[in-house]
Amino acid sequence: MHIEPGVVDGAKIALSYATATGAVGVAGKMAVDTIKRDGLGSLLVRSVITTLLVFVFFEVLPHHPVGVSEVHLILGSTLFLIFGAAPAAIGLALGLLLQGVFFSPFDLPQYGINLTTLLVPLFAMGALAHKIIPAKTAYKDVSYVQALALSTSYQGGIVCWVAFWAFYGQGFGAANIAHVASFGAAYMTVVLVEPLIDLAVLAVAKSLYRFRDSGVFDRRLYGSAQ
Fold first, then answer.
1. Which of 10, 66, 123, 144 is the most exposed place for a label (fewest CB within 10 A)?
2. Which burial class, exposed, middle or buried, applies to 15 when counting CB atoms under 10 A from its CB (0-12, 13-18, 19+)?
3. How far apart are CA 63 and CA 70, in angstroms?
């Protein structure tokens, strides 16, 4: 989802500043709500963990340029189910920033674009989770179908945002359409893998039940919605 440099440039990139500011605002509201519910310490611990994980996802796990962007295994739904929406959003934002500062400075001008592309689908996935996962169901007990729905919504959201930025920046020429289509086709293959990873990680989480009150994991991982 790292959109290629030059796809959106000049005055057009100003739009990404506005969308990223809005996304950060929503993440900030989620963070405040999490602090009220779980405490500042819990949010900080989970945010540090998610930031490190996202950095590893971006820099260590395989990633390949395809079309207008890169295909990454981001595991957004995994971060959401284990650590909660606010820590996942903070981890995605800071992990992306660290990766850009230390390894990919050429991506920094596109930071607002990539941040929007990561966070807005996360918020949409969170709203979907409220609808498809019953309030009495702990996240550790989600089904494959539910995990697939979450992953599909997140990855699909990323593809939609990348397509938006590509068409916004480069128009609807045949070559650009082909590049966007190739990226979308490659990226949606992640959907085949991520739900299985979600269920594997959740299976491990079940064995860590004794840490349910440690503040390291989101309360919903082991309990019902409150």
1. 10
2. middle
3. 7
Single pTM value for the model = 0.93
Q: Is 171 exposed, middle or buried (0-12, 13-18, 19+ CB in 10 A)?
A: exposed
- CA distances (Å), origin 190, targets 15, 37, 50, 174, 186: 28, 33, 20, 25, 8
Does residue 75 come out as left (phi exceeding 0), alpha (psi in the -120 to 50 range) or beta? left
Alpha helix stretches (DSSP H) within 66-189: 76-83, 85-102, 111-132, 144-170, 174-187
Report how far residue 24's alpha carbon sits from residue 93's, in angstroms, rounded to the nearest whole number: 9
Cα separation, 203 vs 194, whole angstroms: 14
Residue 23 pLDDT: 97
Low-confidence ranges of the chain (pLDDT < 50): none
pLDDT of residue 121: 96
Judge contact between 4 and 68, C-beta under 8 A: yes
At a CB cut-off of 8 Å and minimum separation 6, what does 201 contact?
Answer: 78, 81, 82
